[in-house]
Structure formats: structure tokens, C-alpha cells
Specification:
Two copies of one chain form a homodimer. Chain A has two domains: 3-124; 168-498, Neurolysin, domain 3 (Orthogonal Bundle), CATH 1.10.1370.30. The radius of gyration of chain A is 23 Å and the shape is globular. In chain A, 64% of the residues lie in helices and 3% in strands. The first copy, chain A, is mainly α. In chain A, helix 6 (100-123) runs antiparallel to helix 7, helix 9 packs across helix 17 and helix 17 packs antiparallel against helix 18 (381-393). A three-stranded mixed beta sheet of chain A has the order 1-3-2, sandwiched between helices. Chain A has helices at residues 3-31, 38-56, 59-69, 71-74, 79-96, 100-123, 126-147, 154-162, 168-191, 207-221, 257-275, 292-306, 310-313, 317-323, 325-328, 333-341, 357-372, 381-393, 419-438, 441-446, 451-460, 470-478, 485-498, and strands spanning 228-232, 238-242, 245-250. In chain A, a hairpin with a 2-residue loop joins strand 2 (238-242) and strand 3 (245-250). Chain A is built from 23 helices and three strands. Chains A and B meet through helix 1, helix 2 and strand 1 of A and helix 1, helix 2 and strand 1 of B.
Chain lengths: 501, 501
């Protein structure tokens, strides 16, 4: 082992410990902590966050990283160590150029702004939120400006934080393709939406039975309950402390069968990624999934491509019917498959179907791009939002709560994140095309055998953690970098057939 | 505020944050964490524990505490600050005299020894555990030796860690009194144990109903669910992150009605103490209950004196009967009260009734005292244990698992802790005598009105945290320091009446 790297190790270990503690507080806050604990606990989390920053961003570590980035030292490093140094350079690039007092002021603003958003959404009052949003945007522009290379668009900087392989150029190409293909397709389908009956989905479904069935689904896909747990929270999410402790939450709605089922499949996709990270990488800076887009590709592969397929449900649908005979005994597998794949333009992104989902993302991407290019007046965002919803989805929100205020992300400054959702869907199609090539995946699914798929993902994606980036992974698996054609093709084929177009 | 104290504050805040994180990991480990997480998570907890020690035990803090302990500085301090400095001097006295490498070696040994105890208890094999116990005792003797004042018994040092007001002299007097009064009383009663029928307690009691009833009981006593939660774990315990986040666990047994009910009452007693600590003290070194004995007095006051009284059950017993009509409809309140107060010598401390409980403690106290005085051969502890059980309880364990191996404490070096349990019971009697003097407590209980009792405890005990010690609190409330007569009197009166002696 490199002597210099050895000197760095204790700093990394400490940072890892503080980060893990923060994750545990986050988990606890979302799942267990009592209502009035927040003010006191946030003091604790604030101190631990400060310690995390202090032990990672300081002169000693700066010098070590600089030295370890030099060619001579690099030659002594293992691939894992090189990846760690690359990751640390990224962290330094993200954090170091921002004056600490501005960073702290921004974090305080983000908290207040998030609260303002909560109130504004509740009261359906965008004017109340707009001044906070303006300040948030100002900070994000300023921070991106500090970090931007010459002539670089600030939005480009923000996009890179979530997915280093995708800048504005790549996303413009990707989203133009989606728009030109999917918008017309969705318009055709929306005329035929009545041809699929989905009323069975909104009957009464006992929540305890939902929990049991969701747990079954998660285990069926390979979630290891010796290394993970499932709990409840307001919104489903996945969080890990390390690869031996990966946690999912779910949320159950009595009058919706699908909601919790597809959430658990989605989160299990995320969880399998983290559970399968190699033991040698977990608890290091490259010990998690490589990007938001790649992570979403795993959750969406399971949720949509596998989880909404006939082959997947063929061996287990009867178990679902047995769980709810009163509601499902007259719903055939064929009927159920149509129901879970029904597409229909809607206003809320998180409830959107697989086909219309990317259009929700595009709207946010285009607005974010306009904001950072200085082409959008923050006071007029609701109009811009509504115009785009009408254009791409044929619908106009009746109020801002279901329009411009629907997502939490911007309230605390998360710009550049939304594209990952669509990138994830597209990657999952590209991956699945390859999977179908290398194994009889439908046969496996019909036998209830998920193992070959899971092992393929583990060995070609998961185990590498963040030591390879999205395009490197895709190239090693499929021979080519990101290619959105698979996604468009998949959607067209699936939905043209489903709606007999 | 004193300038010097101000300089100390950031160290205290950091130590508090690390300690809170450790508590959360502990909670999580006992209630949620998946089975295989332990090895990886313990690395995290180890680092955080090290950071806790480093930020508290270092030259800067040492100098500050020394300075703040001087008369001139003390004059500038508030009572709270003085109490904090006193507490920190105690921490320094406990930790600083022990060479760090020995402390670390001991902590590693404690982990291994604890595992050895688990195995030994499972296999009923004391010989397997004895070598570990010997090493543990050696370390504890050595550590106590480092800290002992001239001619001070090492066991005295250990006792002081849990209860500064009780040394060997005080405990000898206390326990001699108990022995001379309770041993004969229990012998009389054990002849009449068949006069109380308790078979109803061991019927089948639906666990979900138990959970709901226990939650009701906890809320009835004043547990604030906005500032606390109840979860499940193998053994019930109470843990807090601060006064706005106090957590209880419980454990439910299908064939035992009492077990979970009295556990939740007991833990609620602990929880109320922590919830009622003043806001100005929480998250400081004096922000928890003042001693183990005082803490146990609160749990036992609710569990035994209040929780097993007629006045307490009179307004709510019908609710319990309605919960389990199939088992309880023919069990009168009078019958139930006899059942929950039935006394009977038994072998397991944690399952002992209120009367025989202190005898279990005395046996451990006498053995610990003998160990540290060098009067006990560790290999022969089982014989010593069994002899004492025969002498005080009239029973002999049939094996070491239900004898010398039954408690976890010694396996990781917790010597001097057991007396707190009995001290707590005695304090609760002394307190209750005063409570009866100052309010019509039985009337309140019969009205289902717990508030006056809870407010009395809050205002005279809880809110002070650790700024007053046990005897100061007792003196301020009752006019005298600890006095075991109330306890003996309470037990004699109660049990002589119950068994018509």
C-alpha cells in the first residue's frame, strides 16, 4: 500500500463514520423519531456534519490528495485507491471553492426555504415561496459560478454533480428524441385510455396484507433480510449504512393496490445495488452506487421492465389473487397486466405511468435550464410550467400545488437532479436489451428464478460501486456508451402493442 | 457567562453529539439493525467512541476544567455550570488515571468476554466463562486501584461510579436490615404461597392486544408520544437522545399477561424522569438522571408501589378485562391484585417479585464484595452463589445457567451496579411516604389522575437532572437523607396484610 495513502486512511475512516451516523439520524428521523425531537436532534446532526466537513476538508488532507494525484504516486495506487482519489478530487472541487460562511448561510436558507415551500404548497400560494426560491437560485448560480470552467454554463456544473457523463448537450439530444417520439404517442393513447379498466386497483386492500405481500416481493427479488430491513415512512426511500445494512421504507395506501407494490419493487432495485457493492469498497468514498442515473436504472429495471412484465407476474399473480380474492378473483392476469401498464397523461410526476414519466422530467429540465441561463422570470414560473404541461401532456394544473409547487427538490436547491430519473429509465432499457441477448430472461422469470438477472447486475454493475462511471459500465456491458434508442424503442413497442395502435 | 466556561462549551457540545450518536446506534442495534450489520457498524461506533474520548480527554479540556475548579472561577459560575464541572471532574477521575492502551485492551476483552458468557450460559458451562471473568476482574481491580484513595477498597471505587452517596458502609447497614427483616418474612410467606391462585396470568394473551394495552398504560402514566416512542427488543430498556426524544422498548410474551404490562410501567417511570429534565440541562453533562439508584426509584415507584396498588387499578381494571374477557371475566379486581402481588422465592432476579427482589441483589453484592476483597475464588463462585441462594431464598439452582451465569453484567465488567436496584426500591418507599403526606394520592389514583404525582416528581426530582445528588434530592424532599426504614416498613405492612400473617 502507498505510504501516502496510508496516511490518508484515518481521515477517510473518520469521514465514513460521521457520514454513517448522519445516515442513521436521517433514517431515524424518517421512520422512528418522535415529532418534537427535531430541534434538539438537529443540533447533534449539525455538529456531526461540521466534523465530517472538518475531517475531510483541511490542509493535511488537501496536501495528501494533491500528492496522491501526481503521476508518480498514482503509479503506486491500486485501481480502488485511484478511484477514491478521483472521488475526493470531485468532493474538493464541489466544496472547496465555496467560502465556508456562504456555504453555511446557504444551508440555513435551504432549511427555511424548505419550510416555506411546505407552507406554500399547503396553502397553494406560489407568491409566498417565490422570494425564497429566488434566493436559493442566486446562491446556486453563485456557487456554480465559483466552480465553472471558462465559459461553462452554471447549469452544466450542477448537472455534473449527479451524473458526470451527462451535460446539457447530451441531455438536449436525449430529451429531443423523447419529445419527438413520446409526445405524439401519448396523445394517441390518451384517446384510448378508456379501453383499459383499472377500477379494481382502487378497492379496499387490507394494509397488513399489503405489508406481507410487499415483504414477499422484496425477498422474491433477492432482498437479504439478514442485511437489510423494511420500515415505513411518508415517502418510500432506500438508505444504507454500508453493504451489510441496507434499508428500505414503504408507504401503504388502503385504497391503492399498486402503489406500495411497485414502490417496494423500485426500492428493492436500489437496495440490491447497495447490498451487492463489494466488501472491499463498502465504507470507502467509492462504496456506493456510481451515480443517480445508474441507481435509478436499477430501481426502474425492476419496477417497470421486469415488474410490469407478464413473465414476472405469471408465477406469482395467483398468490396476489389468493391474498385478495374478494377483489381479484375475477381479474385475470391479462387484465391485471393491462391495469399495471395503463398509460394516461397526468399532472403529478411521482404518480405518473412509465410512458408519460419522462415528459414530466423534460419539463423540469427545460425550466431549470432556462433559470440558469437567465431566460426565466422566477415570478412567472407557474405560467411557464403550465404552458409546458399543456404542450407535452395536454393538461393544465388547476392550481400551483399540483403545478410548480409539487416537487420538494428546488426548495432546498437541488437543481440538476431530475434528469437522472429519465436517464435511469433509458439505461434500464439499454441494459435489458443486453440481458435478453445473454440469457433467456423470460424463461427465468416464468420459473420464478431471479438469480441469473441479479447475478448479472451484481457482477457487471453493483460490485464496482463508484469505481467506474456510468458510461464505462455501459460500455463494458453493452459495447457502447449511453444510447437512448433502446428506451424509445422499448416504450414504442410496448405501448403500441398494449393499445393496439 | 464565564469566559473560561465559554471556551469549554464547544468541547462539551461535540462530546454530547458523539454520545447522542452512540446512543442512537445502540437503540438501532437493539431494535432495528439487521443481523449481519454488526461487524461493519461496530467499526463506525468504535471511531465515534474514540472521537468522544478524544474531544473530552485532552490537554485543553484538562486545563479548562482545572481552571474552572478553582475558587476564583467557581464564583463566576452558575449552579448548572458548577454541576457540570463537578461531573467532568468525576469523568476525568474515572478515565484519566487509566492508561489508554489498558483501557482499549479492557474494552476488547469485555466484548470477547461477553460473547464467552453468552456461549457459557447457553451451554450451561461456567468453566468456559471463568477464565474470562478472572481477566475481567483483574482489570477492574487494577483500574480501581489506579483510582483508589489511600486504603480505599477497590469495590468502594466501583460502587461510587453508580451512586456517589452509597459506599460499602452504607450498603452493609442497608442490606443487613433487609436480610434480618425480609428473609424470615419470605420464609413465612413461602409456606402460604398456594393461597394465591395466579394461573389466569399464564393463559394465552394476544400479543397485539398486549401492545395496545401497554401503549395505553404508558400514555395513562404520562408518557408523551410527541417526545418519545415505544419499540420492541429482546429485553425492555429506556434510552434517550435528549429530553425531547425518550425511547422505551418492551417485549411481549403470549403466555404471560403481567410481564409486558409491568415492564412498560417500569420503563415509563424511567422515561418520565428523562422527559422531565429541564430544557436548560438536556444535552449537557448533567442532563440525565442523577444516579442509577434514583432512576430505579422512579421506575420502581411506578412499577411496584403505584402499579401494583388497588387505587391504581380500580379505574382501569375493567378495561383490561374488556381486552381479554375470555381470560379475565371471572377474575375479580381483588383476585387480580393478589395475583400481581404474589410473592414466592425464585431463582431468577429479573423475574422476582417485589418482596424477594432485594435478596437477589444482596447475594450479588456480597459476592462482588468478596471478589474485590480477595476473599472469593472465581472458580468456586457457583458454589458460593448456590449456598447463598439456599440461605436467603431457600432454593438451589439446578444448573449454572439459572445460577451464577444468569446476569450479563459481570461479563463486561459491570461490578457495583446491582445495589442500585435495591437502593431504587428503598428510595421509592421513602418518596412515597412523603407523597402520601402531601397529597391524597389514593384518591387521585382512583380518579385516574396521575398528574399531581407526576408533577411532584418532576418538580422535586426530574427537572434537576444530575445537578443534585441522591441524598440532596431526598433531603430537600423529605428532610432526611436515605433511610431504608420506609422500605422495610412498606414491605412488611404490605405482605403481612396480603398473606394475613
Amino acid at each position: 500500500m502507498s505510504k501516502t495513502f496510508e496516511t490518508l486512511q484515518p481521515y477517510l475512516d473518520k469521514a465514513m463514520a460521521f457520514q454513517t451516523a448522519r445516515n442513521l439520524f436521517e433514517w431515524d428521523d424518517q421512520t422512528v423519531a418522535p415529532f418534537e425531537a427535531a430541534d434538539y436532534t438537529s443540533k447533534v446532526v449539525g455538529i456531526i456534519s461540521d466534523e465530517y466537513m472538518k475531517c475531510l476538508i483541511n490542509d493535511d488532507v488537501r496536501k495528501l490528495i494533491k500528492k496522491l494525484s501526481e503521476e508518480k504516486e498514482q503509479d503506486e495506487l491500486t485501481d480502488k485507491e485511484k478511484a477514491i482519489i478521483k472521488e475526493l478530487n470531485k468532493t474538493y472541487e464541489q466544496l472547496e471553492s465555496i467560502p465556508p460562511e456562504e456555504y453555511r448561510a446557504f444551508n440555513e436558507l435551504a432549511l427555511v426555504s424548505n419550510r416555506a415551500w411546505t407552507k406554500a404548497k399547503k396553502d397553494n400560494n406560489y407568491e409566498y415561496f417565490a422570494p425564497y426560491l429566488k434566493k436559493i437560485i442566486e446562491y446556486k448560480k453563485k456557487f456554480a459560478g465559483y466552480r465553472a470552467k471558462k465559459n461553462q454554463d452554471p447549469y452544466e456544473v450542477l448537472l455534473g454533480d449527479f451524473e458526470e457523463c451527462f451535460g446539457i448537450k447530451e441531455l438536449d439530444v436525449f430529451f429531443d428524441k423523447i419529445k419527438s417520439e413520446i409526445v405524439p404517442l401519448l396523445k394517441q393513447i390518451s384517446k384510448k385510455s378508456d379501453t383499459i379498466d383499472k377500477s379494481y386497483n382502487f378497492l379496499k386492500y387490507d394494509v397488513n396484507k399489503q405489508k406481507a405481500f410487499c415483504k414477499y416481493l422484496s425477498g422474491y427479488l433477492g432482498f437479504d433480510f439478514n442485511r437489510g430491513v423494511i420500515a415505513e415512512s411518508a415517502h418510500p426511500f432506500t438508505l444504507d449504512l454500508h453493504n451489510h445494512d441496507v434499508r428500505i421504507t414503504n408507504n401503504y395506501k388502503e385504497n391503492n393496490l399498486e402503489s406500495a407494490m411497485f414502490s417496494i419493487i423500485h426500492e428493492t432495485g436500489h437496495a440490491l445495488y447497495e447490498m451487492n457493492i463489494d466488501d472491499s469498497l463498502t465504507q470507502t468514498p467509492v462504496g456506493s452506487g456510481t451515480s443517480m442515473g445508474m441507481h435509478e436504472s436499477q430501481s426502474r429495471l425492476f419496477e417497470n421492465i421486469i415488474g410490469r412484465s407478464e413473465a414476472f407476474w405469471a408465477p406469482i399473480y395467483s398468490k396476489l389473487v389468493e391474498t385478495y380474492p374478494e377483489n381479484l378473483k375475477n381479474i385475470s392476469l391479462e387484465h391485471f397486466l393491462k391495469g399495471i401498464n395503463k398509460a394516461e397523461p397526468s399532472l403529478i410526476r411521482t404518480e405518473a405511468d412509465e410512458l408519460s414519466y419522462p415528459l414530466h422530467v423534460i419539463i423540469r429540465y427545460e425550466i431549470e435550464k432556462a433559470i440558469f441561463a437567465g431566460d426565466a422570470d422566477v415570478d412567472k414560473l407557474p405560467e411557464l410550467w403550465n404552458k409546458k404541461y399543456q404542450e407535452y401532456l395536454g393538461l393544465t394544473p388547476t392550481n400551483d400545488a399540483e403545478g410548480i409547487l409539487q416537487d420538494i427538490h428546488w426548495s432546498y436547491g437541488e437543481f440538476g437532479y431530475f434528469p437522472s430519473y429519465a436517464i435511469g429509465s433509458a439505461i434500464s432499457s439499454q441494459l435489458y436489451a443486453k440481458i435478453k441477448e445473454v440469457m433467456p430472461v423470460d424463461e427465468y422469470l416464468k420459473e420464478g428464478n431471479i438469480t441469473p438477472i441479479r447475478e448479472f447486475l451484481r457482477d457487471s454493475i453493483h460490485k464496482y460501486g463508484a469505481t467506474k462511471n456510468t458510461n464505462q459500465i455501459l460500455k463494458d456491458i453493452t459495447g457502447e456508451e449511453f444510447n437512448a434508442d433502446y428506451y424509445v424503442e422499448y416504450l414504442k413497442e410496448k405501448y403500441e402493442s398494449l393499445y393496439s395502435l
